[in-house]
Automatic annotation (TrEMBL):
PANTHER family: CORRINOID ADENOSYLTRANSFERASE (PTHR12213), CORRINOID ADENOSYLTRANSFERASE MMAB (PTHR12213:SF0). Pfam families: Cob_adeno_trans. Keywords: ATP-binding, Cobalamin biosynthesis, Nucleotide-binding, Transferase. It is an enzyme of class 2 (transferase). GO terms for molecular function: corrinoid adenosyltransferase activity. InterPro entries: CblAdoTrfase-like, CblAdoTrfase-like_sf, PduO-typ. It comes from Paenibacillus eucommiae. This is Corrinoid adenosyltransferase. It catalyses: 2 cob(II)alamin + reduced [electron-transfer flavoprotein] + 2 ATP = 2 adenosylcob(III)alamin + 2 triphosphate + oxidized [electron-transfer flavoprotein] + 3 H(+); 2 cob(II)yrinate a,c diamide + reduced [electron-transfer flavoprotein] + 2 ATP = 2 adenosylcob(III)yrinate a,c-diamide + 2 triphosphate + oxidized [electron-transfer flavoprotein] + 3 H(+).
């Protein structure tokens, strides 16, 4: 089997249920999710297996779920296939957010992205995730989508923020507070 097909040479690509232009907002949305998945793979590669085994396993599961998001976004017309992303997947993200947040100290101010390599890479994932969410919101204005994908990406960016802080904590690196920030966060209850 050849990796190249030549079918996209004229500027179109196949989606589930037809073909669209390669710059279609649908392709932009699932392409940004794919980009996020690549950055997530890079972030995981910066994590020591001993210190981050649990987190690495959770993030690998998220990589599979990001493929599910892309698959759902590639469905041209409802009824072509059953959606893969579910409310239960969003609920699971919330459980992980709470679990990893419990490891970190309270913050009261905004923090700057950075710290350890793993934390920095996870902050990149957070920002790319937000861009993917924006692309999905744009797509949903004109096309029917699985609304759980939008919810999933919204929650996932919160998880990336949390695990970026967890990565710094586990590696003994302090988060850097934004010095011009007022106190905007309440302590954990």
């Amino acid at each position: 089997m050849n990796i190249y097909t030549r079918t996209g040479d004229a500027g179109q690509t196949s989606v589930i249920g037809g073909r669209v232009d390669k710059d279609d907002i649908r392709v932009e949305a699932y392409g940004t999710v794919d980009e996020l998945n690549s950055f997530l793979g890079q972030a995981v590669s910066f994590m020591d297996k001993g210190c981050f085994e649990d987190l690495r396993e959770d993030l690998l599961q998220i990589q599979h779920e990001l493929f599910d998001c892309g698959s759902d976004l590639a469905i041209l017309q409802k009824g072509e296939r059953t959606f893969k992303v579910t409310a239960g997947m969003v609920d699971a993200l919330e459980v992980w957010i709470d679990k990893y947040d419990a490891e970190t100290a309270d913050i009261t101010r905004f923090i700057l992205p950075g710290g350890s390599k793993a934390s920095s890479a996870l902050h990149v994932c957070r920002t790319v995730c937000r861009r993917a969410e924006r692309r999905v919101v744009t797509l949903a204005r004109t096309k029917e989508i699985n609304p759980e994908v939008r919810r999933y990406l919204n929650r996932l960016s919160d998880l990336f923020f949390t695990v970026a802080r967890t990565a710094n904590f586990r590696e003994g690196v302090s988060d850097v507070e934004y010095v011009r920030s007022a106190e905007v966060f309440k302590p954990k209850s």
